[in-house]
Amino acid sequence: MAEQEGVIKFSYEFEKRLTISEVPWEMDIWRDLFVGYELIGQVPDRYGGFGFGNLSCRVGEAFSITASQTGGLKRLTASDYALVDDWSLDRNHLSASGVKEPSSESLTHAAIYDSCPSVRFVFHVHSPLIWHARGPLGLPETSAEIPYGTVLMAQTLKKLARDIGSDGIIAMAGHEDGIIGWSTTAMGSGSL
User: What is the C-alpha to C-alpha distance for residues 125 and 108, in angstroms, rounded to an integer?
Assistant: First the structure.
């Protein structure tokens, strides 16, 4: 698990501009809760000190996602979100706009949105407790051989999410402490 957290592994086109006028309130509430439990954050003794965890919500055919390396920020503003409006899992590529670059997990979120059109929220947290108990909890999981941010991870998550349906949770065995949940509502995504 020596892989560096928070590194963008996809190619992308990026237009630097403010894309949302305000932080989506549902994501703001859930992010505050996750930060309080250190499920999203940035601390020196975890993941090489890099930020971890991210949230997104569907916006029409696009999705708004927390920008790269915003985990350490106490509160987010509209400039801390990027809008991903086009993507190709097979090409490992996306198009986005925002003041800051999109999260390194953007294609993972895109895979979930591709899997089920009714999904509106995707939350990616880092929970050592849940991740280590994924077997006894019976959580579906990706292979430990599949690192985060790769085409194979996105394709695997898309298939698993399609099989699970519009509300689900998956442990990312090849992404230390990585848990991803999705639903048609923010409450559903956050409480899985």
Answer: 13
Length of the chain: 192
Give the right CATH number for 11-191 from 3.30.460.10, 3.40.225.10, 3.50.50.60, 1.10.443.10.
3.40.225.10
pTM: 0.93
What digits encode the pLDDT tens for the residues 160-173? Answer: 999 999 999 999 99
Task: For residue 166, give the 3-state DSSP assignment.
Answer: coil
The residue type found at 50 is: F
Going by their DSSP bridges, the two strands 11-16 and 93-98 should be labelled as parallel
Contact yes or no for 106/84 (Cβ under 8 A): yes
DSSP state of 126: E
